[in-house]
Amino acid sequence: MTARFRLPAGRSYNVRTTELARDRQRTEVVCNVFLLDNTVQPFKVNKHDQGQILLDAVFKHLELTERDYFGLHLANDDSDSPRWLDPNKPIRKQLKRGSPHHLNFRVKFFVSDPNKLQEEYTRYQYFLQIKQDILSGR
Length: 138
Fold this sequence. Notes:
Layout: E1 2-6, E2 12-16, H1 17-26, E3 28-34, E4 40-46, H2 51-62, E5 70-74, H3 91-94, E6 101-107, H4 120-136
């Protein structure tokens, strides 16, 4: 099966379906997300998607409803300031070349009183973050 693309000046270019499938595979990247319970979960996303797509996949996997407090921290970032995955930018602009990419699921915004959190599971994730920070000396 072939697909036809029209080029300027009336010329056409035929592309085989296998070539189209191969190009689609190249646009997919694997992101290994290190979760707060010390497990690693791989997610496949299109590198042209916004960061929100990956965030939504992680939140869906964790079944988190209170999403405002959490984010994905770029794990292999060598700079002094922490970099977070921006939900409004394409993934390809934020991650360096090469797959798989490594990200840490972390608490992005801390609240003064964890009892103000609505969901028990959100408090549990919050507790895991604080535990990790204490054990690592942060």
